[in-house]
Amino acid sequence: xxxxxxxxxxxxxxxxxxxxxxxxxxxxxxxxxxxxxxxxxxxxxxxxxxxxxxxxxxxxxxxxxxxxxxxxxxxxxxxxxxxxxxxxxxxxxxxxxxxxxxxxxxxxxxxxxxxxxxxxxxxxxxxxxxxxxxxxxxxxxxxxxxxxxxxxxxxxxxxxxxxxxxxxxxxxxxxxx
Length: 177
Known about the structure:
The protein is mainly α. The chain has helices at residues 11-23, 43-50, 64-73, 88-95, 117-120, 125-137, 139-144, 149-152, 157-173, and strands spanning 30-32, 55-58, 76-78, 99-103, 121-122. The chain has one domain (7-173): Glycogen Phosphorylase B (Rossmann fold), CATH 3.40.50.2000. The protein is globular, with a radius of gyration of 18 Å.
């Protein structure tokens, strides 16, 4: 988890899925990042206690370097958000070779190649659970698989800046009517 600790990110779906994995004896480790601007949903505190043995990190990273180190340490990124305009934190995690499991909505399908949608996109909570369970149980293969780092690298500002400069230059040439 590398999102804000807010209700629109659907943390209850995320943690319910992890509680279920734990109850079934599926071994996993957990990194929960992100900032809480207001009172965080109560599920975060419940998860901190119920998943204490699985937790490697729980809370805001102290620096950008620590955040990046923790993303590079992670293997799988299950996303449950109901609202996201772009999904910057998702793109960051994918860039760090996290294996994405994304809802088939919002901007998320754009972050992975279309031919990989069936593997990485899910339609409902049950499908998320199934795909996450499978990924955790095949973690060795997941770590060795081809990642989508190059696919999301296209969002890097050093790549986009020329396109933006061109577009703004063209807009500046338009005369008002």
